[in-house]
Design a protein that fits this description.
heterodimer; A: alpha+beta; Aldehyde Oxidoreductase, domain 4; six-stranded mixed β-sheet; 30 strands; 26% helix; disordered N terminus; B: DNA polymerase, domain 1; five-stranded mixed β-sheet
Chain lengths: 790, 168
């Protein structure tokens, strides 16, 4: 491909252009400041870096108001149990505890959930706990008293009950029902159907079929959940690590039975989120205690507490069958998945809705059926984890397409290129994107390394004994933002009388760099150097709602709102001096100059009145990406924009030990417009690391190994060199053409590795992750020896 | 439990404290000295977020009793900056994406500071081995290599080179 090895263009967006691979072979230049209009596209140093490298950043556990009480939670030690409390007053008195809280102490509704329609999780269980780790009570008091408590002595009598541990048990007729109205424990079903899949599969010349299961995956943010709450008159203030301050505010208001305006959420820096900090954790306990006692209360989860009680990636049980013609053209895909959604709804409905939209992968599939179910069990709730089910789904679909390519007799990469979705072909929901479908360019960017790596593996294997090398590829697409639901962000930007710019941006930066990216976008839209910006972030009392940090929406949605707000402020300035759109604005200390033809307007900012926001000029803008509801067959426009990508994995298998070493990952991503290439590469590399974990080592078993000693995540020694290739095929809806990257980055890694495993030794596992025991067992079952495959 | 009076030397300053004999160094740093840069991530010596230097050697402050550190030089992330200016490794981590969420960063700072103090020109394998004692969930570690390379170059050529790497 001609684009490789050079830069074809650095597009400005709003034009239909060909894809460009940026930065190939070019020296990387970091920038700590940029002249007006040049921030976008440059490797700007992240704006919040200084606090992080000096240890001054404030996370959930780092700030404690003086006199704060300590709070601890009593949790159910069984997967399912009824319970009765003993004498709580006596216990409190004997142990010098300020108060004990149970469900009876919830003044509003003892119920919350990220999707209001499905909200079903109690702050404290009432009479029956539905998973091991569910809260039943809390104690608050002076640190010395609470810290030394042995909570196993808390006066509660447990009555262990038979628990539903698997999807099959939960679906069995007559099984106990976790929630009223959810027959057979099915929380929700998802469905996308297009064409006639049965006929197409019957008539297909080549078919392939595959079944695969994945397990719970723990987010393993290095920061355990933490925070504090205090009451200020009729307002409750909660300072905690969170990805979704505005959703927290709604839920806390409901729990306390007060108005949302009486709840202030102050997000701290977030020490890793990846989806799990979208749901409430410490907040409701803290809010209840502080509200009741009128004293500040703090709480920090232990690692084990975090692992047993917060959401996980959904275990998936998937079956799929696909058909193609002898020419290699995909004709049909039939896909079914059941997700173990655990005891409460959390993001189960979102996973069930998103996966059927994506199960085709980034390819044109004319006949299609994808059916999903989220099934309740007595296990820890599964929720949002980077990709909302799509990473699991890709493990099935991308392995299946490899099988199909092999049966057709085509090169696996060329099969994907042949079937790549284009601007003009409809997706499985009938949406014709019309622009910005960069998947083919991603695959083509991998072609040189694919060819070289395949040859190197064959050469290596020709003389190797128990070590076998393999190369695998996988593609990905991922819709940015909510699925067919409103998803707005609002940004406010103010011009201060000293000539500096205040950006009220409520998009919580959980480490991915959105605060920097959003500011780069706003600065260029306004035409002002990024150095002049002062950021106000997250606090619900000072920033408008920017939605939640999820679904790869912050660059796209909040970034677009920042673009619009920046442009609006620019227009306000021009309007003040009645200058035309083409005028140039320069910002000085205390003044703004507008240059128009030969005229110069100088605005002395001190002379302007201060508005209600405290600025001389304020602009606010809201962006809500255009989507359309899906009909009963899942046809419609679920997302305004998709991100695309493909990964190439090179691995080495030790057939005697069953271990897999990843040698190299090459990752090509169409990001529309790389607002900040360094931050995007950081997202890709981090996504790849999590993908490696998911493929090879990470599986959480509720009730076992509830710590980071037993639950392994990749360390530096597990991560190979990662080469990122950024492709810019812009989408005119996003700011400067940009799309999301956060979740896109994790999706193709695991299937690429699993395809490489098959390439190396010819096995496909029914259960992922591909831990050494599973790989070795399959090697023995298949009778594979090092020298038996050429 | 009765508190005892101890004297710790933290970031070059003597600090006299009354602590329980069972108090961990990490909690003493965070609660008594308000040095919250060192983090508690795992409770079982898995993550390395609490790493500090004891007489220049990286140790997990969540596994040390504060009282056992008397007479030793304790360095935390707050003491990495030199003469009020950022240390090369700090600046490089901030610039090159070594920190994303940043929660593990203070621990990595200490690990890498020790590596650079004891190994003049660490090979990639030596860097990897050093980094393997700390966990990061965000970065995939890759940009840390870039940061460390930049910091080594800066230490060899002086901080000017680090500033030049970042265009003003």
């Amino acid at each position: 491909m001609d684009a490789i090895g050079g830069v074809l263009c650095r597009c400005t967006g709003y034009r239909k252009i060909i894809s460009a691979v940026i930065d190939a072979g070019r020296e990387q230049i970091l920038m700590s400041s940029a002249p007006a209009g040049t921030a976008v596209g440059n490797r700007m140093v992240r704006l919040d870096g200084l606090a992080k490298i000096t240890g001054k950043e404030i996370y959930g556990a780092d700030e404690i108001p003086s006199g704060a009480l300590l709070l601890r939670v009593i949790r159910c030690p069984f997967h399912r149990a009824g319970f009765q409390f003993g004498d709580l007053e006596k216990y409190a008195k004997q142990n010098a505890i300020t108060c004990v809280l149970t469900a009876k102490d919830v003044p509003g509704e003892n119920r919350y959930g990220v999707i209001p329609k499905f909200a079903d999780q109690p702050v404290f269980a009432e009479s029956e706990a539905r998973f091991k780790g569910e809260a039943v009570a809390a104690v608050a008091g002076a640190q010395a008293a609470v810290e030394k408590l042995d909570l196993t002595q808390f006066p509660v009598v447990w009555n262990e009950l038979p628990a539903l541990m698997t999807i099959d048990q939960a679906l069995t007729p007559g099984a106990p029902q976790l929630h009223h109205g959810r027959e057979q424990n099915v929380l929700v079903r998802g469905r996308v159907v297009r064409g006639d899949v049965d006929a197409a599969l019957r008539n297909a010349e080549i078919t392939a079929e595959l079944e695969v299961e994945t397990g719970f995956v723990e987010h393993a943010c290095i920061e355990p959940e933490a925070g504090f709450a205090r009451r200020a008159g009729d307002t409750i203030e909660i300072q905690a690590c969170t990805q979704s301050p505005y959703m927290d505010r709604s839920d806390i208001a409901r729990i306390l039975g007060i108005a949302e305006a009486s709840v202030r959420i102050i997000p701290t820096a977030v020490g890793g989120g990846f989806g799990t900090k979208l749901d409430l954790s410490v907040q409701p306990f803290l809010a209840l205690a502080a509200w009741k006692l009128n004293l500040p209360v703090r709480m920090v989860y232990s690692r084990t507490e975090s692992m047993i009680s917060t959401t996980k990636r959904h275990p998936a049980r998937m079956w799929a069958k696909a058909g193609a013609g002898r020419d290699g053209k995909l004709q049909a895909l039939d896909f079914r998945a059941d997700f173990n959604t655990g005891a409460y709804s959390s993001w189960g409905p979102t996973v069930s809705a998103r996966v059927p939209v994506h199960a085709s992968g980034p390819y044109f599939v004319p006949h299609y059926r994808a059916l999903t179910r989220a099934v309740h069990t007595h296990l820890v709730p599964a929720g949002a984890f980077r990709g909302f089910g799509v990473p699991q789904m890709a493990i099935a679909q991308e392995q299946l397409y490899d099988e199909l390519a092999d049966r057709v007799g085509m090169d696996r990469l060329e099969f994907r290129i042949l079937n790549s979705l284009t601007n003009d072909l409809p997706t499985v929901t009938g949406q014709v994107l019309g622009e910005g479908v960069g998947i083919r360019a991603c695959f083509e960017a991998l072609r040189p390394r694919w060819k070289a790596a395949r040859k190197e593996a064959v050469d290596f294997n020709s003389s190797a004994q128990h070590l076998r090398r393999g190369v695998g590829v996988a593609g990905m697409w991922y819709g940015c933002g909510n699925t067919s639901l409103p998803n707005p962000s609002t940004m406010r930007v103010g011009l201060k009388s000293d000539g500096r710019i205040a950006l009220h941006q409520g998009a919580v930066d959980i480490g991915q760099g959105s605060a920097t990216v959003v500011t780069q976008i706003c600065a260029d839209a306004l035409g002002c150097s990024i150095d002049r910006f002062d950021l106000l972030s997250g606090d619900t009392s000072i920033t408008p709602d920017c939605g939640k940090t999820s679904a790869s929406r912050q660059t796209f949605v909040s970034g677009k709102a920042a673009y619009m707000a920046g442009e609006a402020l620019r227009r306000e300035i021009l309007r003040l001096v009645k200058a035309c759109d083409c005028a140039k604005i320069s910002f000085e200390n205390g003044s703004v100059e507008v240059h128009e033809d030969k005229k110069l307007h100088r605005i002395s900012l001190a002379d302007l009145p201060i508005d209600k926001h405290g600025y001389v000029l304020t602009a606010e803008a809201t962006f809500d990406p255009p989507t359309r509801a899906l009909d009963e067959n899942g046809q419609g426009m679920p997302y305004a924009v998709y991100g695309f990508g493909a990964h190439l994995a090179e691995i080495e298998v030790d057939t005697e030990l069953g271990t897999i070493k990843v040698l190299r990952i090459t990752a090509a991503h169409d990001v529309g417009r790389a607002i900040n290439p360094t931050l995007i590469e950081g997202q890709i590399e981090g996504g790849v690391a999590q993908g490696i974990g998911m493929a090879l080592m990470e599986e959480f078993f509720p009730g076992k190994g509830e710590n980071l000693h037993d639950y392994l995540i990749p360390s530096a020694g597990d991560i190979p060199p990662i080469e990122s290739i950024l492709i810019e095929d812009p989408s005119s809806i996003g700011p400067y053409g940009a799309k999301g990257i956060g979740e896109q980055a994790v999706i193709p890694t695991a299937p690429a590795i699993l395809n490489a495993l098959h390439d190396a030794i010819g096995i496909r596992l029914r259960k992922i992750p591909a831990t050494p025991d599973r790989v070795r067992a399959e090697i023995l079952r298949c009778g594979i020896t090092g020298a038996s495959r050429g | 439990m009765k508190k005892q009076l101890i004297e710790l030397r933290v970031n070059g300053r003597p600090r006299e404290l009354a602590v329980e004999p069972s108090k961990l160094l990490l909690e003493t740093l965070r609660q008594d000295l308000q040095l919250t840069g060192s983090k508690r991530g795992c409770d079982d010596s898995s993550c390395g977020a609490c790493t500090v230097l004891i007489d220049g050697v990286p140790m997990l402050s969540c596994t040390l009793l504060a009282a056992s550190c008397e007479g030793q030089e304790i360095t935390t992330v707050e003491g990495v900056s030199e003469h009020g200016a950022l240390a090369a490794i700090q600046k490089a981590y901030g610039d090159w994406g070594g920190a994303q969420c940043g929660f593990c960063t203070p621990g990595f700072m200490m690990t890498v500071k020790h590596l650079l103090a004891t190994t003049a020109n660490p090979s990639e394998a030596e860097i990897r081995e050093a980094l393997s004692s700390n966990l990061c969930r965000c970065t995939g570690y890759s940009q840390m290599y870039q940061a460390i390379k930049a910091a080594i170059e800066a230490e060899q050529k002086g901080m000017d080179s680090l500033s030049q790497q970042v265009a003003k």
